[in-house]
Amino acid sequence: MAQPNTNVVFAPWDDPAAKPIIQFKNVTKRFGEFTAIDNLTLDIYPQEFFALLGPSGCGKTTLMRMLGGFESPTEGQILLDGVDIGPVPPNERPVNMMFQSYALFPHLSVWDNIAFGLKRSNMPKDQIGDRVEKMLKLTQLGKFAKRKPHQISGGQRQRVALARSLAKAPKLLLLDEPLGALDKKLRNETQFELMDIQETTGTTFVIVTHDQEEAMTVASRVAIMVDGSLAQVSTPDQIYEAPNSTYVADFIGDVNLIEGKAAAAKGGMDVHWGDHQPPIHITTDKPLPAGAHCHFAIRPEKVSISATTPKAANVVKGTILDIAYLGNISTYHVEIASGVIFKAQTTNSKRLSRRTFTWEDEVYLSWTDTAGVVLSE
Amino acid sequence: MRRFSWFNATSLTFGFAFLYLPMLMLIIYSFNESRLVTVWAGFSTKWYGELMQNEAFLDAAWVTIKVAFWSSTLATILGTMAAYIMVRAGRFRGRGLFSGMIYAPLVMPEVITGLSLLLFFIAVDVDRGILTIVLAHTTFAMCYVSVVVTSRLVSFDNSLEEAALDLGCTPFDAFRSVTLPIIMPAVISGWLLAFTLSLDDLVIATFTSGPSSTTLPIKIFSAVRLGVTPEINALSTIMILLVTVGVISASLISRSLAIKAKADERKAEQQ
Predict the structure, then answer these.
(1) Rounded to a whole number, what is the distance in Å from the CA of A164 to chain B's nearest CA?
(2) Is the ipTM of this complex over 0.85?
(3) pTM
(4) Residue limits of the ABC transporter domain (chain A) (predicted)?
(5) Do B167 and A164 touch (CB under 8 A)?
(6) Which of A3, A201, A279, A317 has the least CB density, counted as fewest CB within 10 Å?
């Protein structure tokens, strides 16, 4: 297989000439009085691994079921390759879905489960066998071809479901919480398998998940959904490092959020917060207008902790309240004079024979002027 | 193990005696030499031989089996359709009324069902015979089938059908190749239930049968009015035997299937 030039970043969403494979155009879906999807517009590009992430009830599953053809939009259009697929029934869409419960046919063997869709396409009989064998090889299920679904383990069932949904080489594969039923260790392995398979087949994947770690790991872009709307659609690193709202910042990972007022400063802006606290200096080329109400957001791992006054753009003093030791990292909860609690994370790169800090210690927290972001909403 | 107690032993004996003593009497007297049913005169199988010569009984038995087969098959098809539609249709106005109307014949007195069917057949001018009994049995057996199949469909994972649609099945193909094979055990037990209900129905068959179509229950009932003969005892014994063999083999088969499925699952977990 030709290796793509590693200098070229896969980012069709930044390329105005790129043609999206899926377009949601002002889609609204109502169930009676309840609005599940609210005037949503979204483009998904070929070969993307696109994750829909959100709390339960945010509409992510409804969005996916509309792609599969099991729900139709109340208003708006869904285009696949520029064609409106609203009136197309699920069995005529070049889209396949991997169900959360796997939905394997219990009365059919693994082989027949994978061949099920192929037998209903106009593929010649002799090619079906080859295709099934190829799928079995891709998912390492060769040994289990003759077994029934109840005779294999959960992880193997998950792979059968994947093989079955990929067998017809769909233009778009939908994965509904595909790893939800697996234990953590198997889930991590399977995430990488999924990414490999997505890369090998070049299929566009849309995954629905409530597990943010999973979305961040596998996806090329993540859409954060809340109450039927998109809060932010961006690459995992942008979502994490440059959230566009306090909701997204708080939803993804751990964050310190400080409420304050913007003030003008040279090269950036200041955020005034708390009584008797030094303002937070931020270097940015897009400062908020002075006096605006805002939140300063900074990830705990970007906050350093030290016993003596460090040289940094922002320094605050506090007392350690709690220490959470997680093996690879430790999280310190530090109470700052004004009553605000800050989280600071350190990597335990040395073995922990003696803690540098302990409870009730007076410490200094510091961060650079580019470590955090200011959010106006 | 619980200790043996006289109370338990006595209640067990009385319970079983209550259930099976009458049938046991019937079986014993079917081997009676004497024509008098209640006087024992030695062991003989001659009544079984005579039964085989009795054309009227054999004809009635054949009619009964034909009626039971066709009515239970029709009832299974209609009952499964009704169950499928009621479970899949979701919520709509008047759903409760519809499902109530499917189950109403379950509690309707048989005399009324039989009478209304008789009046209906007369009104549309259909000659009474095997066809009318089949139709009558279909109507009342259908709701039993529908109850059995509904209870299976309620626990059926809807995503299996969606997966079939997703993989290119038309809705009918999805039902035929995925739903039906999975709910088949319930459909078969619905069929068996309908078959046995039809076999022993007397009331509705009496209303809807014609001169050429006497079923076995009607035949036995009318014969008994002229006095019980050992022939009827012999016939009943054969029916008891058939039912017993059927029930025992059905339960053995389902138990061995259950054991096999459990062993398979254990095998899967060990991997």
Answers:
(1) 9
(2) no
(3) 0.81
(4) 22-252
(5) yes
(6) A3
